[in-house]
Amino acid sequence: MPRKIGSGLSMREREIVDILHRVGKASVAEVQELLPDPPSYSSVRSILRILEQKGHVRHIEDGKRYLYAPLESRPTAARAALQQVVRNFFGGSLEQAVTAFLADSEAEISRDELGRLADLIERAREEG
Q1: What is the pLDDT along the chain (128 residues), one digit of tens a residue?
Q2: Is the pTM above the cut of 0.90?
Q3: Is the dihedral of CA 89, 83, 78, 121 positive or negative?
Q4: What is the CATH number of the domain that holds 33?
Q5: Total number of domains in the chain
Q6: Which phi and psi (to 5°) does residue 57 adopt?
Q7: Angle subtended at Cα 15 by Cα 9 and Cα 17, rounded to the nearest 5 degrees
Q8: Is position 76 within any domain?
């Protein structure tokens, strides 16, 4: 069974949605060309049809071919995926998620980034 990530998408589905976010819209052949270790054309077409049924992409007709595009903007999709990760892996606790990230010795975060995060936290505190 394929591993699920983000908002209920398999790794391959997520790769395809990421490609569509990057390029805007693409045909099956264009998506296949951009995939690492690409599956067959019919597999890509099938995955795009599944993504359309799940409500992540839509198609438009361009002559005899379909062009596929994401339904959500990248920031909206990223927010939804992050919220699901926080729910699934950290019991809904944003504090635990941030703590896990900051405790990661490989996470590189600059003083400037820490300052901006502190400002965001203070602004959220003030807004209640």
Answers
A1: 444 445 578 899 989 999 999 999 999 999 999 999 999 999 999 999 999 999 999 999 999 999 999 998 888 888 887 888 899 899 999 999 988 888 876 778 888 998 999 999 999 999 98
A2: no
A3: negative
A4: 1.10.10.10
A5: 2
A6: -135, 165
A7: 70
A8: no
